Amino acid sequence: MAQEIELKLAVPDASLAPVAAWLDANGEAKGELTLLNVYLDTPERDLARARAALRLRRKGAQWLQTLKTAGQSQSGLASRHEWETEVACEAIELQRLPDEARALLAPLAARLAPVFRTDFARRTWILEQDGARIEAALDSGAITAPATHAQERIQELELEWLSGDESRAADALRALGARLQAIAALTPSDLSKAARGYRLAGVANA
């Protein structure tokens, strides 16, 4: 089980160009790709009530399944548990997940169905900050909830801790965030894409 530690910042239109230019100048550009994602839950929204999110992601020719469990988020800085494995196609494969994740999903498996989508283009860079290795991901796209015919824009920067002293990960992310906020108007965001998707789908307190 991985521990995901990240800082999320909302990016207004006027900040897109200066943020990308700063990242080009100060980080190692890793390219751009399109990520197509569908989030699943039961009709009773068992995962939402447990503050968990289950996602199938198409990344080029590769399919990934990801389960994230309840975490904490304050001033855009989030920490949560995450399991991610490859799958053969757009279908959940419980046997590829570790025991803890499989135990959560197995009772729900027969009733899982798509609830909303998050589809976006992602540009990524790798940066160093105070001994930490950090991935910066600039996402632009949309969240759609077919049942409510609702759509919401995605335009955000995610700074994710990759390696270094984990006890100092939050400080390193905040320091890098402050450097970026000095060159563009960026606002910390505590809502994950999954939380926003559930709200669009009409699920309260997701």
Automatic annotation (TrEMBL):
Quote the protein name from its UniProt record: Inorganic triphosphatase
Domain (CYTH): give its ranges.
2-204
Enumerate the UniProt keywords alphabetically. Hydrolase
Q: What Enzyme Commission number does this protein have?
A: 3.6.1.25
Q: Please give the Gene Ontology molecular function terms for this protein.
A: inorganic triphosphate phosphatase activity; metal ion binding
Q: Which InterPro entries match?
A: CYTH-like_dom_sf, CYTH_domain, YgiF
Q: Which species is listed as the source? A: Cupriavidus yeoncheonensis
